[in-house]
Amino acid sequence: xxxxxxxxxxxxxxxxxxxxxxxxxxxxxxxxxxxxxxxxxxxxxxxxxxxxxxxxxxxxxxxxxxxxxxxxxxxxxxxxxxxxxxxxxxxxxxxxxxxxxxxxxxxxxxxxxxxxxxxxxxxxxxxxxxxxxxxxxxxxxxxxxxxxxxxxxxxxxxxxxxxxxxxxxxxxxxxxxxxxxxxxxxxxxx
Length: 190
Ligand code: GLN
Description:
By secondary structure, this protein is an alpha/beta fold. The protein contains five helices and twelve strands.
């Protein structure tokens, strides 16, 4: 039998512990990533939700940004949730904050509006046999995709999950539910 998949969870800020739990429940080994050296030997990386401006700033000051971009270009799967989506996007309308610029998406921050700061919804995800519960917390949505980016889920006419080759992203927080299907899908990409 093959060994356990080793998945890094970027642990600079935000909801990283919940991703570690979900990965362990899926049978993978979860490693906290805070230093460049910790990117070595990973089968995949998760960029969690939190505050995208802080995560972006910390990635630069911890000297992690270039290493993540390099690993991504050599094919390592990366999964960004919520703030992680923003950090992966090539475009963020109305903001000049730092991003890794990995994915051909435009991610609009806090895009669902103040009245509905946080909400939950059952989502149809392309290729998934069952609906997935999405927990949205001051979530972004994708207002444009281009190139080889494929839309995987839409809520209220807005793109909330997408994939581009080795890159996966969603607006919501799959690590806050007991449903492991999205983490399993990501592990399947590794
Ligand atoms: N609103 C946050 C941002 O723009 C993202 C929120 C989250 O990750 N739950 O960075």
